[in-house]
Each structure stands twice: as structure tokens, then as C-alpha cells.
From TrEMBL:
Pfam families: EamA. It is found in: Membrane. Residues 21-147, 159-287 form the EamA domain. PANTHER family: ACYL-MALONYL CONDENSING ENZYME-RELATED, SOLUTE CARRIER FAMILY 35 MEMBER G1. Its main location: membrane. It comes from Geothrix oryzae. This is EamA domain-containing protein. It is a multi-pass membrane protein. InterPro entries: EamA_dom, EmrE-like. It comes from the Bacteria. Keywords: Membrane, Transmembrane, Transmembrane helix.
Length: 298
């Protein structure tokens, strides 16, 4: 195997591991967000969105201070576009989680990888192979089984509309990250995600915030949720520097699967036969897409 081909294979392997790690971070983040927005916890979707961006921006500034040269913005318009769309995703998805069952919100939101693939056909002229399309569809079917738990039908309402809107903005963000990775590093992209996204979510955080006194544990969980989001975003942005939007879409289907598996021990949710079957189908789809979905280059 030529050295260049071997190096590319290693980069792709690392990028897939990064997306898997991103799924773990985002899965834990979603569970904590659900717990923190339950009645009596004190946080609203707007609170968590603002906290996520503030903690992320502070962590980014600390990283820039410790690693000179890490902050290297180039395409400001693309960075700001990614930040604005990402801010809309955060507040809309947190709103959906607070106003409808997490499973139904996940089904609606998780159409974003498919939307992202369709967008990439026009934005980057990417041509996914038939194997990759089959992998995306199989993994998506598995996710529907996991999150639907064998129930047909969804009650939209305000939460459902918010989840679908979040999916559209998430697909836009995925393509913006892919485009930005040609000139920007992952840390710079994430910093502008926080910087431009914060004004989007601030109007939704005007309700009284939980007090620090006597609720430090709740605030600690909220900060941990924000740090998990920080790790998930960095890993995902880094992976988009190597993988196409269509291949990343297959691996992004792991996110709700990880969330489902973590929710069983952490939230006490029950795993059904449909859910376990969905896990197997999704994993099979991801494996199939990884093995056969890549278009070989000369």
C-alpha cells in the first residue's frame, strides 16, 4: 500500500473514532439536559443553551492562551454562519426536549444527517455511493426503532416543530463545518460557534436562574453538560476535516444509539425488544457503510 494511501486510511480511522467519541459526549449531554430541565430542577432550555456557549467560549479562550497559534480565523463569514445556525440548533433542540418525550424528539431531530447529505450534493458535489445510501437508510431505520420503541405515530405540537427546525439547522451546520474545515481548525470553528450562537439564545434565558446557594450540585451538572458539549463539538468538527458529509452522516447515527444505551442505567428507562433490534440494525448499517461506502480514488 502506498504511503499516501496508508496515511489517508489512518486519518479516516481516527476521524471515525472521533465521531464515536463525539456520540458519547453528546449522548451524556442530552441525558444531563433532560434531567436539568425536568420540573423542579430549575433550568430552562434557554438557560442551558446560554451556559453551554459561555462555558465553551471560556474553555476556548483558555486553550488559545495555553496553545499560541491555535486561534487562526480566516473565513469570518463562514464561521459566523456556522455559529448562528448552531445557536438555533441548541435552543430549538433543548426546547423540544423540554416539551415532548425525548424519544420522539430524537426521532424528529435525527433526520438531520439525511438532510445534510442531500445538501452536500449541491454544495460540494459529493456523490455518495449506493452502499453509503443504503447504510444511511439502514442506520436511520435502526434509530427509529430505538427511539420509537415500537410505537407508530408522533405527536408534533410545539416540541415536534422545534425538533424538525433543529434538524434543518443542524444539517446546515454540518455542511458549514465541512466547508470551514478547509481553512479553519476545529478549535477556531467551535469558538465562533459559541461567540455567534450566544446572541441567538440569550432572549430565551430571561426566566429567573437557579440560585447557587443550596443548588451547587445542579450547577455542577450544568457545567459538566457544557463541557461534554465542548468535547463533542470539537471531536465532530475535527472529524469533518477528513470525512465527507455523507460518510459522517452514517457515523452520526450512533449518537441516539449511545443516548438510548446510556439512558437505561442513568435515567432508568426500559430497553424493549424493538429498541435492542434497532441498536443491532444501526450498528450493522454503520459497519456496512464503513466497509463498503467509501468511493475508491485513483
Amino acid at each position: 500500500m502506498p504511503a499516501a494511501t496508508a496515511a489517508l486510511s489512518r486519518r479516516r480511522l481516527v476521524a471515525r473514532a472521533e465521531l464515536a467519541g463525539s456520540a458519547v459526549c453528546f449522548g451524556l449531554m442530552a441525558i444531563l439536559a433532560r434531567k436539568l430541565t425536568l420540573p423542579g430542577a430549575g433550568f430552562t432550555a434557554g438557560h442551558l443553551a446560554v451556559l453551554r456557549f459561555v462555558v465553551g467560549a471560556l474553555a476556548s479562550l483558555a486553550a488559545f492562551r495555553l496553545l499560541p497559534g491555535l486561534y487562526r480565523p480566516s473565513n469570518y463569514r463562514l464561521l459566523v454562519t456556522r455559529g448562528l445556525s448552531g445557536g438555533a440548533v441548541v435552543v430549538l433542540y433543548f426546547y423540544a426536549l423540554a416539551h415532548m418525550p425525548a424519544g420522539e424528539a430524537g426521532i424528529l431531530y435525527n433526520v438531520f444527517p439525511v438532510i445534510a447529505v442531500v445538501m452536500s450534493l449541491f454544495l460540494f458535489q459529493e456523490r455518495p455511493t449506493i452502499h453509503l445510501w443504503l447504510a444511511v437508510l439502514a442506520a436511520s431505520l435502526g434509530v427509529v426503532l430505538v427511539l420509537g420503541q415500537g410505537h407508530a405515530g408522533l405527536s408534533l405540537g410545539r416540541g415536534g416543530v422545534a425538533a424538525l427546525a433543529a434538524a434543518v439547522f443542524a444539517a446546515t451546520s454540518a455542511n458549514a463545518i465541512r466547508a470551514a474545515r478547509h481553512t479553519e481548525n476545529a478549535a477556531t470553528i467551535f469558538f465562533y460557534f459559541c461567540l455567534a450562537g450566544l446572541p441567538v439564545v440569550l432572549p430565551f434565558a430571561l426566566d429567573p436562574w437557579p440560585r447557587l446557594g443550596g443548588a451547587f450540585g445542579i450547577w455542577g451538572l450544568a457545567v459538566l453538560m457544557s463541557l461534554l458539549a465542548y468535547g463533542g463539538q470539537l471531536l465532530m468538527s475535527e472529524a469533518y476535516g477528513t470525512l465527507s458529509v455523507s460518510e459522517a452522516a452514517v457515523w452520526l447515527q450512533l449518537l441516539p444509539i449511545v443516548q438510548f444505551l446510556l439512558a437505561v442505567p442513568l435515567l432508568g428507562e426500559r430497553a424493549t425488544a424493538f429498541g435492542l433490534a434497532g441498536v443491532l440494525i444501526t450498528v450493522a448499517g454503520v459497519t456496512y457503510g464503513t466497509l463498503f461506502g467509501h468511493r475508491r480514488r485513483a
